[in-house]
Each structure stands twice: as C-alpha cells, then as structure tokens.
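Your task
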Amino acid sequence: MDLNNEIECLCLARSKDGYNFTVETEPILFPDKDDFGRLNDPRITYIDGWYYLTYCSDPGDEAGKYEGIYLCISRTKDFYNWEKVYKSEPDNRDAVIFPEKINGLYVRLDRPFRRGYKKENGYDIWISYSPDMEFWGRHSLLLSYLDVPWGSNKIGPATPPIKTDKGWLTLFHAAEIVQPDGYFPPWMWEGKPLGFTKVYRPGVMLLDLEDPSKIIGLYKYPLMEISADYELDTYFRPNVIFPCGIIEEPDGELKIYYGASDTHVAVATAKVNDLVDLCLA
C-alpha cells in the first residue's frame, strides 16, 4: 500500500515450506480506475484451471466515498495476467469461493450490508451460486450474526472452505464491540482511544457436502483468542485475527494465514480432523 497516494495493490510471495517467503518487489495487480485505489480483503481459490481472486473495492477518498463497497472477482493462470469477471452492486465484501462446483454450479459465500452501513447493526454470511462466475443467484442467508454471541457487531467469510468426508470445513470471522472495562482486559486497549473497541476472532463451521446452504455443525466458541504481541499491536488496529488463506497439507495439517492487527501476516496450524470434531461436538 502506498501511504502517500493511498493505493492498495496485490503482491506475490512464494514459499516452499509455507513459513519462509520471498516477496516480489513489484505488485502483480493494481486497482482498476473504478476501484478508487482500493483493493483489499483478497482471497484466492484454484478451480477449473484458474486462480479466482475475490476482493473488495472500498473507496475511501473524497471522489469515491459515495460509491459504496463493491465485491469483485478476477482470475489468472500465471498471477501476472488478470481478467476481471465480476463486480457486484454495493454494498458487499468478504467473499470466498468453494474449490469445486457443487451440483454443476460455482458456490460463493459473502457478506452483504443488508441493514445499511451503520455500526449498531450486525451483518451476516450469505451463500449464492453461479454457472460462470459472472452471474450469481439463489442468494440466501447462511449464518446470522445473532447466532454468534461473540460476533455481535458483524460476521463474514474468512478462508475458502476445505472439503472433508464429513462436510465443508468453513472458517469465518466475527467482530464484537467491547468496552475496556468489560470481558477483555484493559491492556488490550492500551494506546488506542476508547472509541475503537472491536475484537476480531475466527470461528469454524461445517456445511453439508451436497447442499452447503445447510450448516451441520458450528463451534460455539472462537477458534483463536487474541494473545500475541502482533495481534495486539496498537499502531493501527489492535485485537484483530482475520484469516484469509488456508492450505491443507497431505498429513491433514492446516496452515491458516491471517491478518493480525491489520498490520501483520501470521500463520497458525491445526489438524483438519480436530476442527471437524469441534464443529460436531
């Protein structure tokens, strides 16, 4: 991100072990003109020979502040040549695409702002389907923020789902607003004004393999709690764990890549069967 010109770009990092990365010096994807310099919340899914990238265009300058937040999908085969295939109506963001078609259709989870962009209203996770990634329909509510006690501010998709024998293992994020004298200890807010008291944490659920609009298991607690220094960093936005990427290793280990405090990228590991068991407990 260029802090002087407020342009957000996508860069490419490569790794052989999932821990040590080499970051290319030049961005591989720039915002389109109608993105107003903002390209954020990217998630990527490989399907049918293409890498599909979902991201949101979130205008923040004077020219774009009335535009709303758009959900976009672009695709590539080599990470250097991109084709935009979809742009939503406002307001929507935080989309993930399933890694295979279900009943002949692509499947997407997203988070529309159906109550208007107001802090006092919560947002939910929706599901939709497409024959070609361009036209999406059969929209329906999947999970309400009212069903996640620790997501009283909003919830949304996190990483693309992982297919298991028992269902689609699906991470989501949830945010709640808590005052410093509440459940969370005061040191979590050190260096930040009391007006910013959001806490972001991940959750996990299991969706039916043939009908992913059905939740067959939901872990009722956060999957991770804020604890590390980089999750508490007060430079920009503390108390944030926000997963966007996930890799399943041959031995069943999951590498979960997440944004920490909106300033760091971190990774946590878990066994896929352990997370499935949490959902079904």
Summary: The chain has two domains: 1-139, 144-281. The first helix runs from residue 272 to 280. The radius of gyration is 18 Å. The chain has a mean pLDDT of 89.
